[in-house]
């Protein structure tokens, strides 16, 4: 699927702000106009372009945005190049004097990606379910394994009460850091170092999950989740197994390119999914649905789409061999993923890598 590119305008200067809005409008991208630090943290990770001034620069620059970051200064200047370098700005521009220069740069930036490599197409995808027990973790695993065959991918367990995604995968005895071991107190962590420290499946898929021996605490926090995504999305696709009941659900989905909502084809599950989808849509989070058919399902995929109000891109029935291996030896012992799982996962692959 494709996502709508956005340009984040975070400018407080009364002279710069109207100039920035006019330039943003000329790009044809969706505009998010905010100077609230909380909103900047929410939207910067997935914006294609970010325009900031001296007041808001550190908020956007400090969270490793994936988009092109531009520092704006009012006439007559000068440009604060020290600040521009510190926040990792692609350029610094004086407005309105250099409006044409900025417009030309943005046109080139949005028309032609810097690189056609897999890393350039990296996505952050959250997989969530409208109710518990729908098979959300299994779908997240299938999606991550499918992506890993095409581009570098990491699977992130964002369930604070999860027993550990490594149990589902059958790699619980594999060495590597878990959430409780991860700390950003001493500063940022390079993506390559973080990836190298994670346990891997037999196919080489890195997994960040919980440790069952961590005094009953998962070690998952909103701050750590956002930092991990901000660190890894430059080099890897990130698939997040995220329960809709997590306290950081809104913050994390705001940082994702899109959300896959797994919906059992049942009235109550569809009603719950409708509430979740409405919240996501209100925050402009791209969302697609996958319908889950269980033995007592009474709705069709068309019914679910009408109730929930999202595009249903795939369906998943019961895969007979999965429940037993998930409880005993882990999905890895299946060898190749069952056809039904592979098909459902392929339905939600980002278009850039599908």
Description of the structure:
The chain has 354 residues and is of the alpha/beta class. It contains 14 helices and 12 strands. The strands form 2 sheets. It has a 7-stranded parallel beta sheet with strand order 8-7-9-6-10-11-12, with helices on both faces. The protein has a 5-stranded parallel beta sheet with strand order 2-1-3-4-5, with helices on both faces. Helix 3 links the parallel strand 3 (49-52) and strand 4. The longest helix has 16 residues, at 267-282. The protein starts with 5 loop residues before the first strand and ends in a 7-residue tail after the last helix. Mean pLDDT is 84; it is low at 112-121. InterPro entries: P-loop_NTPase, ParA/MinD_ATPase, Rv3660c, Rv3660c_N. This is CpaE-like protein. One of its GO terms (molecular function) is ATP hydrolysis activity. Pfam families: Rv3660c_N.
Task: Please specify the SSE layout and strand pairing.
Layout lengths: L5 E5 L5 H12 L2 E4 L3 H7 L5 E4 L4 H5 L6 E7 L6 H7 L3 E5 L3 H13 L12 E6 L6 H13 L4 E5 L7 H5 L21 H7 L9 E2 L13 H11 L4 E5 L7 H6 L3 E7 L2 H16 L4 E6 L8 H8 L2 E6 L5 H6 L11 H9 L7
Helix pairs in contact: 1-5, 6-14
Produce a short descriptive summary.
It is built from 14 helices and twelve strands. The chain is α/β, with parallel strands linked by helices and 354 residues long.
Keywords summarizing the entry:
single chain, 354 residues, alpha/beta, Rossmann fold, 5-stranded parallel β-sheet
């Amino acid at each position: 699927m494709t996502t709508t590119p956005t340009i984040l305008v975070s400018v407080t200067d009364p002279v710069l702000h109207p100039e920035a809005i006019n330039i943003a409008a000329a790009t044809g991208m969706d505009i998010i106009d905010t100077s609230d630090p909380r909103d900047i943290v929410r939207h910067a990770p997935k914006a294609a372009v970010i325009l900031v001034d001296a007041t808001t620069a550190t908020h956007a620059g400090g969270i490793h945005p994936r988009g092109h970051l531009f520092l704006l200064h009012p006439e007559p200047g000068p440009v604060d190049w020290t600040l521009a370098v510190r926040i990792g700005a692609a350029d610094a521009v004086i407005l309105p004097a250099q409006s044409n220069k900025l417009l030309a740069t943005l046109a080139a930036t949005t028309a032609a990606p810097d690189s056609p490599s897999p890393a350039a197409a990296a996505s952050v995808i959250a997989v969530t379910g409208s109710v518990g027990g729908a098979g959300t973790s299994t779908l997240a695993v299938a999606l991550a394994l499918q992506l890993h065959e095409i581009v570098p991918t990491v699977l992130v367990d964002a369930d604070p009460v999860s027993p550990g995604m490594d149990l589902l995968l059958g790699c619980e005895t594999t060495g590597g850091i878990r959430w409780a071991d991860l700390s950003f107190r001493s500063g940022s962590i390079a993506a390559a170092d973080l990836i190298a420290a994670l346990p891997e499946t037999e196919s080489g898929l890195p997994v960040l999950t919980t440790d069952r021996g961590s005094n009953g605490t998962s070690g998952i926090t909103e701050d750590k989740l956002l930092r991990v995504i901000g660190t890894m999305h430059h080099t890897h696709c990130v698939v997040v197994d995220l329960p809709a009941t997590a306290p950081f659900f809104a913050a994390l989905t705001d940082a994702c390119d899109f959300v896959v909502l797994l919906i059992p084809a049942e009235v109550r599950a569809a009603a719950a999914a409708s509430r979740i989808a409405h919240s996501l849509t209100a925050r402009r989070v791209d969302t697609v649905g996958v319908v889950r058919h269980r033995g007592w399902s009474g709705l069709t995929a068309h019914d679910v789409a009408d109730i929930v109000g999202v595009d249903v891109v795939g369906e998943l029935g019961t895969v007979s061999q999965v429940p037993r291996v998930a409880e005993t030896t882990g999905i890895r012992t299946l060898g190749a993923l069952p056809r039904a799982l592979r098909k459902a996962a392929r339905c939600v692959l980002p278009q850039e890598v599908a």
